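Why predict the complex rather than its parts? Because the way molecules touch one another can change local conformation, and only a joint prediction can capture that. The input here totals 431 residues.
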Amino acid sequence: MKNNLYTLCYAAILGMACSVLLTATKNFTEPYRAANARADEIRHILAALKVPLKADQPSKRLLDIFNRVVVKRELGDMVTYEYVPSGTQGRVEAIALRFSGPGLWGPIKGLLALESDAETIRGVTFYEHEETPGLGGKISSASFREQFEGKSIVNETGKFGIVIRKGDSQLARNSVHGITGATMTCNKVEAMLNTAIQAFIEAKDIHGQ
Amino acid sequence: MANEKQPVCVSCGAKGPCGGKGLPTLKEGLWTSNPLAIQVLGICSALAVTNRLENSLVMGIALIFVCVGSNLFVSLLRNVTPHRIRMIAEVAIIATFVILFDQFLKAFYWDMSKQLGPYVGLIITNCIVMGRAEAFALQNPPLLSMVDGAANGLGYACVLAVVGFFRELLGTGKVLDMTVLDGKWYKPNQLMILAPGAFFALGIIIAVLNALKGPEAEEKKQ
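Output of the joint prediction:
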């Protein structure tokens, strides 16, 4: 009986000590992690919209630029970011929308940017994923992402959607090549892109632009 | 092992704080029973993160930190830990150190933390860390346990660095993101970046290390 009590007390104290230490670390690193995440998000929105930037801008400067040229709009549940270059009297040059969904190991989140015609893809970025480094992780590489640029989110017959095909296959105006060794990741990315595109088209129809 | 005469630590002699076992312990972890090359433990992470040298190095540092920290605390608590829950206690200590390192990476090395993805967190399940706590830190004083943790962490880190070096070099023609093998006469071999490349690289390294040790080492063990 005495033994059990000792074991319980030991476990409780050890557990407490560990959790106090972890909570302290979490609180200490919270502002850094939050700032990293925010800067990362802004950097990705600006990059997806292809806002011209000088290399190696400090985070604070990026925030200034972001506040000046990017307009956040809500179409129902859908949040879009519009790039309105300064000195163009409010002409929208590009629209970015978020997409997200389950990846192979964890959630994947990214941004899809469209030209002002809302059909041609301006760029795709991934700002959060836990895919296998070197395989699915390549979704964030330039060679994969650049394939999307100039593609359309509408196919030849007027149907909305993006297709990620196996390497070497013929490409249509709305398809790109996948990553060898990362078919599962590519399928999931394709699905989440299409969900976002559908939601955007519907939101645009209802709320107008 | 028991009746084998242990060589005496040259740095402090038998009377030093480690009881003359410091250097042999270091050698054991780094070379004679290297956790990756000899015991072939913890190869899951070794295969997963070694496609770039930089990733391998950070992962090695993470394991050294966790091994030293967990061995120290498991050893400090070894006389008061109830035997029945010792493994749970070890896991709690190991997990604490892993999360500490993960948080540190997320706060100050955001890009690296994103590249390593889930593998830093998965150090909790790395058999090397748990194995050293069970096999060494539970029976030995804190200082010596720290040496053991460092030795095993270093042993892991060294093999990881070698695997990472060759995979990055042969797979992309680069070392630490600097182009070494020119694209004109060397075509990067994608296989080395993919998971099977890690098996080949690690297998060849283990084979070479065994060959270097010679057949005597195998016989002595038996």
